[in-house]
Amino acid sequence: xxxxxxxxxxxxxxxxxxxxxxxxxxxxxxxxxxxxxxxxxxxxxxxxxxxxxxxxxxxxxxxxxxxxxxxxxxxxxxxxxxxxxxxxxxxxxxxxxxxxxxxxxxxxxxxx
Length: 112
Hints:
Helix content is 24%, strand content 4%. It has 112 residues and is mainly α. It has a domain at 81-112. It is elongated. The N and C termini lie far apart (123 Å). It is found in: Nucleus.
């Protein structure tokens, strides 16, 4: 009798009641979607500098400063390409170096 009672205690009791079945869905539910949401990044607002509104008078060349167009060319410095004189140099002109197609040879050109 005792052996029988011990065997019954060790038996596993399994229930045949299962939770209600659900149809598989191709779409996530709202609860499932919450799990996949990425945290929102904080948006840093960069202050826009209030730029001075330009007027037509600001765009005109100042006559008080001379308005010389060569001034801004001098400020370019090494970024400015050298001016090339395409006229042949009479001191260095050689008939043998003259091309028949009308081009000036590079050694006859002076760079200012």
